Every structure is written in C-alpha cells, then in structure tokens.
Amino acid sequence: MENIKENIYPVFDRMMTRKEKEEMLGQRGLMVWFTGLSGSGKSTLALALEHELSARGILCKVLDGDNIRSGINSNLGFSAEDRRENIRRIAEVARLFVDLGVVTIASFISPERSMREMAAEIIGREDFKEIYVSTSIAECERRDVKGLYARARRGEIKDFTGVSAPYEPPVAPALAIDTAGKTVEESVNEILSLVLPLVSSH
Fold it and tell me: Does the annotation flag 40 for ligand binding?
C-alpha cells in the first residue's frame, strides 16, 4: 500500500508567520476552552464572551458542540472513541484559528481530563486557557433546557455525562465559574479579566 505521507510536502516555511498575522490584526491568538456539564452555562458564556470581545474590536470565533456535530463531525457518534475523535478534530481546527491570531472560544462538555489534555497539547499549552463552568448537576437538571437529563434518567439516552457517564472536573483550570446565582454579565466580567490581558498586543 502506498505511503500517503511520502506524497505530502508541507509549505509552512513559505507561509506568513503567526507573529505577522497577529501584528496585522493587532491582537494575540488564544484558545478559551469552556468545559462543564450539559446545562451548566458553557454556550451562554461563550456567546456572551464573543459579543464582549467583538465590541472591543477583538476578532474571535466560537466553536460550539451542536454546530460542530452537525458539520465537520457529523459522522461521529457518542462512543468513547468518537467523543475523543470529536475533541481531536476540534482541537486541530482551533489550532488553525489560534495560529491566525484569532481568539477561539470552544464550548464542549469534553468530559475526560485526557481529552482536554490532548486538546491542550495539539493547540499549545501556552495558548490554552481552560474555564471550568462548575455549576452543580442539581442546578443543570433544574434548568434542563433541552430535556436531556429527563430523557437520560428514563434510560432513553445512553452514556449521558453526569447521569450514566462520568465527568472528570479540571484539576487546575485557569478559571472556575459557578453560574448559579450569578448574572451572565458578572460571569463574563470574570472571564474578561483573564482573557483581555492575554490577547492585547499593547
């Protein structure tokens, strides 16, 4: 069988550098990775952060679980192998954005620490900021916007994180936020305090 890699000739040495792209944009690339249970507030915070950064003239892109799974990862299911491959592909795409100087915001349950470690390795640890949305499962179930917890409790959804599949919280996240009893604005202001100094080129 032909070795496909023998026919690949990367041209990275002739491309514009990341530094050149960042200077052109006037900002630094960064990966902001939200992790937490379904219903914890990840997507809400990711979208609010996008709006706040955009309002400050910072180019950013949100990668959200449902959108990714309906597009680039539409062929993946929810087995352990597929969940890992889902995160691997997301990390590879995110690295391209970060290398462009774009602030990239990911909102994924990413339940296993090893998955998030893999993502950090692919993207680059110095560019990877993990934000743990630590909202309790009781609060997430109370919200249950999509009715997923109720279905999981009835056994209609297998391997549902927090009910029939485990969630491994981060050991040392860059930031932990419990959205219960907090406004979106209060939570986003905490995140901005972390992110803005890292993406500013001044």
Answer: yes
